[in-house]
Design a protein that fits this description.
Layout lengths: L8 H4 L11 E18 L2 E19 L8 E21 L12 E26 L3 E26 L2 E28 L2 E8 L3 E16 L7 E11 L7 E10 L2 E10 L2 E7 L17 E5 L2 E11 L4 E10 L17 E12 L3 E14 L10 E17 L8
Length: 403
């Protein structure tokens, strides 16, 4: 946020773009990504793993003479990308339902399928004011797409009479919004400092579907339960919060130290996909599959170090947090679980006359004891991901310094 010195500033701090002297083309991509999701229910593991290839950031500058000391850049980045599919079949003799201890538990089938992606594309304008102070704003259009299927089937036995309980909840939506990222950057007491502010999203349009079913059959002296939900073409709403960060980079001869803190505001409860309450075909009660979003405020921190070993290459290491905003008491069912993630990264940059080449690894891990949204389940979950990064930065003709 405070020490970005290339085109990555269009995302981290638009004000720093005005302090980049050399126009360039930046391509940073995830060469590959390996992730593992593990659920543990009744002492048994249910996990899934996947390899993927996901581009991260592409940015470049417009080179127009009429811009004067102003800078104008374009960018496209993958803000979020995750996908996992877990399936499991468990066997146990624990009662399936605490309220019915006479039901012998035979088997439990769990299935979870989720995919989330969010892409940002935009234009950044920046200029200098006063002596070496850069200010800028990035205007982004964001597309968010999310789908989830959660399914659980329980098989039981009442003295030779088979009984089943099934619950399925499924939704999908897309949502387009606009948002702005403003930033200021300068040098203060030998520190490169920056202050970026991200606005909430402004809804443009979006829609989605909600479907599901609930059923219980085979319980003696009970008529059972049947309910079905199928709502299509629902207007979708997704909210993103205010975010304010502050960061700095201190130069010590050949070593740079980077520090950053970012605060995210809370979000009041809202309906992402409002679904009508459905009366079951058989049985009592109402079924509500409305997808809701609510979040607490949270603070994330980051620290990193970069060291120049010679004129040709530099080494990097960093750590940052990515804490969940879904805390105790929130009614959100949009997030699958409440992972508090930690990211560790190492890498190196090699400088040549034609371009700079960067390679690195990012390790992300976390866990949660809060159960995912699987009915009647007592589940622990954990997350692990390793990502290989490859980046290229191509410089063009040098422009006059604006500092």
């Amino acid at each position: 946020m405070g020490g970005s010195s290339d085109l990555s500033s269009v995302y981290y701090n638009p004000g720093r773009l005005a302090l980049v002297n050399e126009p360039e083309l930046l391509l940073a991509g995830n060469v590959f990504e390996y992730s593992t999701i593990k659920l543990k229910e009744r002492g048994q593991d249910i996990s899934s793993s996947r390899f993927s290839l996901t581009p991260s950031l592409f940015a470049g500058e417009f080179r127009f003479g009429w811009l004067g000391k102003s800078r104008l850049a374009y960018s496209f980045l993958t803000r979020s990308s995750s996908e996992f599919n877990t399936q499991g079949r468990l066997q146990n003799t624990t009662p399936a339902f605490p309220e019915r201890p006479d039901l012998e538990f035979l088997a439990d089938s769990v299935r979870v399928d989720q995919k989330l992606s969010e892409y940002w594309g935009g234009v950044t304008w920046a200029t200098t004011v006063g002596n070496g102070i850069g200010v800028g704003v990035s205007t982004f259009g964001a597309l968010r797409n999310q789908r989830r299927l959660v399914q659980r089937t329980i098989l039981g036995d009442f003295g030779g009479i088979p009984a089943t309980s099934q619950a399925t909840a499924e939704y999908r939506y897309d949502h387009w919004r606009a948002l702005w990222k403003l930033g200021v950057g300068t040098n203060l007491y030998n520190w490169d400092v920056g202050l970026p502010v991200t606005t909430p999203g402004l809804k443009l349009f979006g829609s989605g579907d909600v479907a599901g079913d609930r059923s219980i059959a085979g319980v003696p002296n009970d008529l059972g339960y049947r309910a079905f939900v199928d709502h299509r073409g629902i207007a979708s709403t997704y909210k993103s919060p205010w975010a304010v960060g502050i960061g700095g980079a201190r130069r010590f001869d050949k070593t740079h130290v980077h520090l950053g803190v970012e605060w995210f505001d809370f979000l009041a409860l809202c309906d992402v996909l409002p679904a009508d309450l459905v009366t079951p075909v058989i049985g009592d009660g109402l079924v509500d599959l409305t997808v809701r979003q609510e979040s607490d405020s949270v603070i994330n921190i980051a620290a990193g170090v970069a060291h120049t070993f010679n004129g040709k290459w530099e080494g990097y290491a960093s750590i940052r947090t990515d804490f969940s905003t879904v805390g105790d008491g929130t009614e959100s069912n949009l997030s699958f679980t409440e992972w508090n993630l930690y990211h560790l990264s190492v890498g190196a940059t090699v400088h040549t006359d034609a371009a700079d080449f960067t390679a690195g690894l990012i390790l992300a891990f976390g866990s949660s004891n809060a159960p995912p949204r699987i009915e009647q389940a007592e589940v622990q979950s954990s997350y692990f991901r390793v990502t290989a990064i490859l980046g290229f930065s191509f410089g063009f003709a040098e422009v006059p310094s604006t500092q």
